[in-house]
Amino acid sequence: xxxxxxxxxxxxxxxxxxxSMAQVRLGLGWDAVxxxxxxxxxxxxxxxxxxxxxxxxxxLYNAGGQALDTVFFNQLTSKDGSIRHTxxxxxxxxxxxxxxxxxxxxxxxxxxxxxxxxxxxxxQQTFNQIKNAFCRVxxxxxxxxxxxxxxxxxxxxxxxxxxxxxxSREGAGWKFTAIGRPANGRxxxxxxxxxxxVLAQ
Length: 201
What we know:
single chain, about 200 residues
């Protein structure tokens, strides 16, 4: 289990020996809020958890806050090949990561200063229907691929998107920061402007 971060907290991805992590994996997950079972028939047929189809995406920005590229279910690899989305999860069913984004940090284009990770709901399901949304960082360049940081969202609300976290260049390395800012949008394109606002945090 990695370091548990609160909203606004950050963690350097520089190792104790001074080297930087190279290959990291961002795992994003969520659970559906179980609906109450109403009446006899509801007990037989209704209630329980519903399927939640959220989309995890990454937006790449330069130092001036200009979006340079996006990685999402319909564009699984960044233009420079350094970031790869492993595929869309249509239900959110199961434990653990629902969607995963791999980042080869040394290969990220030098013009990229920030990589912002967002979750959107194309079907407009809201975070009132979602619990336990999280974002975690796994160091795939270390033996056993340890989890180094985790941010679990505690907020719920009537919004349809969430700016979860970001990776930012810090000296010769990178820093992970938990954000947890609500937004609204169906696609990653809808989140480019709201995510720009978190770059200075």
